């Protein structure tokens, strides 16, 4: 009872079922069911998420452009 690594103690009234790793399938129905089940929610949510991400990207690029132009403007003013 639990003397060696991997030997679990015997517990009464608990039944464990297992299947051999050689009988398992690693990716059952991956292409036939897995990809379509991911694709459908992705397509429905892309129309909700994409406009916000485009807006965030445009705001980010505009902010970086404004930062550079204001920095150059203030550098020119301070050099005078």
TrEMBL record:
It is a single-pass membrane protein. The keyword Transmembrane helix applies. InterPro entries: Cyt_bc1_su8, Cyt_bc1_su8_sf. GO terms for cellular component: mitochondrial inner membrane; respiratory chain complex III. The keyword Transport applies. It is found in: Mitochondrion inner membrane. Pfam families: UcrQ. GO terms for biological process: mitochondrial electron transport, ubiquinol to cytochrome c. Keywords: Electron transport, Membrane, Mitochondrion, Mitochondrion inner membrane, Respiratory chain, Transmembrane, Transmembrane helix, Transport. PANTHER family: CYTOCHROME B-C1 COMPLEX SUBUNIT 8, UBIQUINOL-CYTOCHROME C REDUCTASE COMPLEX UBIQUINONE-BINDING PROTEIN QP-C. Component of the ubiquinol-cytochrome c oxidoreductase (cytochrome b-c1 complex, complex III, CIII), a multisubunit enzyme composed of 11 subunits. The complex is composed of 3 respiratory subunits cytochrome b, cytochrome c1 and Rieske protein UQCRFS1, 2 core protein subunits UQCRC1/QCR1 and UQCRC2/QCR2, and 6 low-molecular weight protein subunits UQCRH/QCR6, UQCRB/QCR7, UQCRQ/QCR8, UQCR10/QCR9, UQCR11/QCR10 and subunit 9, the cleavage product of Rieske protein UQCRFS1. Component of the ubiquinol-cytochrome c oxidoreductase, a multisubunit transmembrane complex that is part of the mitochondrial electron transport chain which drives oxidative phosphorylation. The complex plays an important role in the uptake of multiple carbon sources present in different host niches. Belongs to the UQCRQ/QCR8 family. This is Cytochrome b-c1 complex subunit 8. It comes from Sinocyclocheilus rhinocerous. The lineage of its organism: Eukaryota, Metazoa, Chordata, Craniata, Vertebrata.
């Amino acid at each position: 009872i639990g003397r060696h690594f991997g030997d679990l103690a015997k517990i009464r009234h608990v039944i464990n079922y297992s299947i051999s790793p050689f009988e398992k399938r690693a990716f059952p129905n991956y292409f036939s069911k897995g990809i379509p089940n991911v694709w459908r929610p992705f397509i429905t949510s892309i129309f909700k998420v994409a406009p916000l991400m485009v807006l965030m990207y445009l705001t980010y690029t505009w902010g970086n452009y404004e930062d550079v132009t204001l920095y150059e403007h203030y550098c020119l003013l301070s050099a005078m």
